[in-house]
Amino acid sequence: MKRAPFFITGTGTGVGKTVLTALLARFLRQSGRRVAALKPVCSGSRADARRLASALGGELTLDEINPWHFRAPIAPVLAARREQQRVTLPRMAAHARRLHGGFDWLLVEGAGGLLSPLGENADSRDLIAALRAIPVIAGPNRLGVVNHLRLTLAALPSAARARARVVLMSSEKADAATGTNAALLAEYFAADRIITFPWLGRRFRLETALKNVRVRNALSRVLSLETDRGSPSRGGF
């Protein structure tokens, strides 16, 4: 059965979007689902897109996963202009829909934060709306993230915000706020849609990470799947 797309965005750059998207993709594949993962636009390195390609086990080519890539490590819209190219919302949405047509699940990873420009007059919020996607917002589980997450949630269209999930990505070293962020955010956003993701280490393999029960349960809650033990996800979606 075809599911609504999931759009993985974040509170900014380097907050764990690609790690989360790659793990979701491999988790779905291990569960027997047919899944495509897409990073429409990259500027600078294509390392994120290559990681998604690896997670999909060669199911899609790098250019299918990442159709627009530009050399300059700056905002994608500016990097595209330097190469005299234009990336538009209709083109990004059409590519995503075309990929989704051959798969039951589609994961789309944005670039930067929710309002970082992806193309001409287009950002992740626009693409979420165009695809009617379920937003998954990743943020680092440290001091300051509650403000960043509330701002991101407030910027979403109301229909998308009602379906959003928030994933607090743990880091190697906790700070004074790490253990309190989920409870504080729950005063403003549904507690059952706040997921805390464990620290995986600086270097890890997807297969190894997916043997961790906490990891699998967190991914299951994001996707509203059942766990291996057959108990329903607590996500309540």
Kindly state the number of beta strands: 10
Element-level helix/strand string: EHEEHHEHHEEEHEHHEHEHH
Shape: globular
Task: Tell me the Rg in angstroms.
Answer: 17 Å
Number of domains: 1
Overall mean pLDDT stands at 92
Q: CATH H level: which superfamily?
A: P-loop containing nucleotide triphosphate hydrolases
- CA-to-CA gap between the ends? 17 Å
CATH class: Alpha Beta
CATH topology description: Rossmann fold
Strand content of the residues, in percent? Answer: 15-25%
Biggest sheet character: 6 strands, parallel
Can you offer a commentary on this structure?
With 237 residues, the chain is α/β, with parallel strands linked by helices. It has one domain: Rossmann fold (3-Layer(aba) Sandwich), CATH 3.40.50.300. Helices cover 38% and strands 17% of the residues. It is built from 11 helices and 10 strands. The chain has helices spanning 17-30, 47-55, 62-65, 76-82, 89-100, 124-131, 145-155, 158-161, 181-185, 206-209, 213-223, and strands spanning 6-10, 35-38, 41-43, 68-70, 105-109, 117-119, 122-123, 134-140, 165-169, 194-197. The strands form 3 sheets. A 6-stranded parallel sheet has the order 2-5-1-8-9-10, with helices on both faces. A two-stranded parallel sheet has the order 3-4. It has a two-stranded antiparallel sheet with strand order 6-7.
